Amino acid sequence: MKQDIHPKYYEKAKAICACGNKFEIGSTKPEIHIEICGACHPFYTGKEKMIDTAGRVEKFKKRMEKKKK
Fold this sequence. Notes:
Layout lengths: L9 E8 L4 E6 L3 E4 L7 H4 L8 H15 L1
Family: Belongs to the bacterial ribosomal protein bL31 family. Type A subfamily.
InterPro entries: Ribosomal_bL28/bL31-like_sf, Ribosomal_bL31, Ribosomal_bL31_A, Ribosomal_bL31_sf
Cofactor: Zn(2+)
C-alpha cells in the first residue's frame, strides 16, 4: 500500500439508527447516522412497514393525464 493516501480507519465507529439502536462498526468516519438497521428492518423483524408512496404515484399519474390532454 502507498503511504499517506488512505483515509483513517476507525475500528470502533459508532453507527446510530433512526430507530435509536446504536452499535459499533468499522468505518472511515467516526460516527455514522443510518435510517434502517437490523433491529428495525422488516426482513429481520418480521413486521411489515408501510412507507407512504401513494402521494408520489398519484402525482405522477395526474401529470401523465395532463400530458395526454
